[in-house]
Write a sequence for this structure.
């Protein structure tokens, strides 16, 4: 008798879990179609995405001509 009750309880829990997953899938059905916005503007200071600060005025890019480290 205890085995039968255990089996019924386990099957009922599986059915409830499947039903909850079904409800969540129905609620968020088209969510994968929305664009993902990872940047919420916390790191930017008025610049657009992907912009980097340019070189300082009056400076040029030079290769590293120093000696190699020991």
């Amino acid at each position: 008798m205890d085995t039968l009750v255990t089996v019924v309880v386990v099957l009922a829990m599986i059915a409830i879990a499947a039903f909850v997953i079904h409800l969540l899938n129905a609620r968020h059905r088209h969510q994968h179609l929305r664009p993902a916005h990872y940047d919420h503007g916390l790191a930017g200071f008025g610049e657009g995405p992907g912009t980097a600060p340019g070189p300082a005025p009056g400076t040029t890019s030079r290769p590293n001509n120093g000696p190699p480290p020991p």
Notes: The mean pLDDT is 74. The CA atoms of residues 39 and 49 lie 9 Å apart. DSSP finds one helix and no strands in the chain.
